[in-house]
Write the structure tokens for this entry.
Amino acid sequence: MSRTLVLVRHGQSEWNLKNLFTGWRDPDLTEKGHAEAKAAGEKLKARGLKFDIAFTSVLQRAQKTCQHILDCVGQSDLETIRDRALNERDYGDLSGLNKNDARLKWGEEQVHIWRRSYDVPPPNGESLKDTGARVWPYYLHTLQPHVLAGGTVLVAAHGNSLRALIMALDGLSGEEVTGLELGTGVPVIYRLNADSTVASKDILAD
């Protein structure tokens, strides 16, 4: 019984590189992003991991990261489910803006609150709490059953959708999760107990 859940934030995107708020916009990976995704795959291959099913968002940076990983572990044709429940948080009116320009427009403190607080959304966008409101049910009803059935499940998604998921898995408070950072292309491996609690957590950072 594997009961393994692997979470990977997508590799660097073109808008990460340009310091833009991305959200539900759909830029591609950079060369570095492709390399980060392949490196994640090699790390998982070195652990001998094989997946039973993969999940990703409807955004290409996560989908391409997922595919690179599957290619590396020799499972290019694995069933992969794409769902907007795993999308990055929607940054609303900030989407497409340079983060420094946003600070000039709204002030450093306000932009910091929008970016890092748990429950304060940017204008016309989602807070981390709002993101969790779509991620958590998807985990409980779609992802977790595959894991608890003994499977090994890959989820390639985004910084904030994965932060919301890790918040639930690790039992973090709204205050604690504000300090959680996820590196691009860094696999996080959870092994679950039969009762769905976390047995172990392993971060494959460089």
The radius of gyration is 16 Å.
